[in-house]
Amino acid sequence: MTAHTHKSPLIVHRAHPLNAEPPGNLLQQSFLTPQQHFFVRTHGSIPEIDPSRYRLLLTGLVQQPRAFSLDELRSLAPARTVPVTLECAGNRRTEIMAVKPLGGEVPWGAGAISTANWLGIPLREVLRAVGVQANARYVAFTGLDEAPFAGETVHFGSSITLGKALSQDVLLAYEMNDEPLTPEHGFPLRLIVPGYIGARSVKWLGEITLQHHPSTNPYQTRDYKLFPSEVTAQTADWSRGKTLESLVLNAVITTPQAGETVAAGRVQVRGYAISGEEAPVERVELSVDDGQTWKTATIVERAGPYAWCFWELSLSLPPGDRQLIVRAWDTSKHTQPEDVRNLWNFKGYMNNACHRVTIHLV
Amino acid sequence: MTAHTHKSPLIVHRAHPLNAEPPGNLLQQSFLTPQQHFFVRTHGSIPEIDPSRYRLLLTGLVQQPRAFSLDELRSLAPARTVPVTLECAGNRRTEIMAVKPLGGEVPWGAGAISTANWLGIPLREVLRAVGVQANARYVAFTGLDEAPFAGETVHFGSSITLGKALSQDVLLAYEMNDEPLTPEHGFPLRLIVPGYIGARSVKWLGEITLQHHPSTNPYQTRDYKLFPSEVTAQTADWSRGKTLESLVLNAVITTPQAGETVAAGRVQVRGYAISGEEAPVERVELSVDDGQTWKTATIVERAGPYAWCFWELSLSLPPGDRQLIVRAWDTSKHTQPEDVRNLWNFKGYMNNACHRVTIHLV
């Protein structure tokens, strides 16, 4: 069914539902991630959809409920391209799991993140076409997949505020990097919510519902929330968890990889950095002496407020084992927490502790 | 000249120019800081201004330069009250100085921060009255004080972007907490820039200049910038420093104080937390085991997006020495760096490492 079951260069954490990420060296090969290297997060089936029969339903607090064909959507407004990085809220979860085990979550490394140029119709043009009632506050999205949740079968769903939905950069996307979406990336239509965790960018979009309250889909109400470290799966009161929206400031070393053996002398270190939408990445720094001193890396590529940046720095390193540490700063002068041990939460979300990679120099 | 030279409850770091902060227990007494307890940051003289002869000049890229009397300003538009916390970029500098010495900076503790209800005329109403030319990008502000800078005598000055200046909450303030400003707080008129470091809220405002570029005042171009840790006063290229604007996420324990002897058993811990304007404080946590576990404090008072919040937590603590650590999280799920040793910069700005207080329980 997918290109990933055989000869895929991705690390497949689970085949059913498919969850796979590119290794760091592959991630770093290209600022825009080719579709076949783009990380895949699915919660259930990958639906096979006949585009000629596909309809997107607009329902709820709208002036006029409607069902749009793909051609009707495309004729609504000019298409727009936005470079957006999608990052799973569980990116870098393995580091959290190493602190203390988690139950049953996908063990993402630092590759649950990828970037594409997304082409689509701005969501707000579709909302304009159907008319939004004055009491609508949230826009809920439902996928056409079938996903298990606590013993039930549901469609994946989520919601964002109407304010966010009216941003010109929230897209109903049908192409990434000039190619039609493949089935695992949401063919024929997916939502793209720039600056938010990947789970808000619902794939295989079937229905958009204007409503007064956030989505009641269990993937919104009982998943993708942040809890304090003293809360466990057994004690969690989901109504008190904090809904994840914006991405956090983060930076990762992709080259060299942890445990790699590298020739001593000049070592070229590379990686990515990302921030939420409020404040772009301003500076990336590396330390090879456990944070006592830091060197500023060069940001070599970036693309607007919603995409990662690529950075690199050439270091001179003697033989021996050496830990490299990276951190980013944003334009609001925030930097990252140092120690993942202080960020444990039972769902393993939002790990933005300074990334550490130990290499062997010979 | 000021109430602080005798019997002031403030800690006076310097008398000329006056720089003084309230101790933590005083800071925590009242959510709105009384004017006589409000921290004072000055760079030079405290001008004595006759309000009847005072004029505010509007110059530069305006349709019509003008000089406003105080009465004329007040008649321009309805006054507006906004609760705003002012925080010096050097708040908590002593912790940075303990890592490695700095040259000649004011050794602020954690009290270079205070909150007031500010009453004034929105700056944008004044800009509307004079008309802004289409090529204006920045609004520069000049004070009527005389301050030394690198051997010269200058007026303190700063600038903000025109976009920020057009926020309805940027005020030309003449009252704080229902009292006229005292001389040390900017009488008769000061700027209030919510969410930004205190240095942008220019006191004794004499002139507002619309221009295409940021202020060239040395307090803007060669001060209040953040540099990487490898840069020193000798090696700094000021054009490469990053201009400080937004406040960073921060939290401080004000009660008990460091070194205090406290009865073992139930200990009531109190403090403040603050964030920049983008994302409010969502959660405050305390650890008494060096970050291994955290308990969530109760936020007991807050007032809009630009003011600190007060929090408290009752802990049960056995006899012995104990380090309390606090950290805040914002609604974007950012938290703070742990270790001030990783935040050293030669001007000693923006210390938002987790605040640590060691107490003696008996």
Share of helix of chain A, binned:
under 10%
Q: Main β-sheet of chain A, in a few words?
A: 5 strands, mixed
The total domain count of chain A is: 2
Q: Greatest contact pair?
A: A-B, 38 and 38 residues
Instruction: Give the count of helical stretches of chain A.
Output: 6
Task: Note poorly predicted spans of chain A.
Answer: none
Radius of gyration of chain A equals: 21 Å
Provide the CATH topology of the largest domain in chain A: Sulfite Oxidase, Chain A, domain 2
Full CATH superfamily name of the largest domain in chain A: Oxidoreductase, molybdopterin-binding domain
Please give the CATH architecture of the largest domain in chain A.
Alpha-Beta Complex
| SSE-based structural type of chain A | mainly beta
The side-by-side strand order for the widest beta sheet of chain A comes to 5-4-15-8-11
Assembly type of the shown chains? homodimer
Bin the strand percentage of chain A: 35-45%
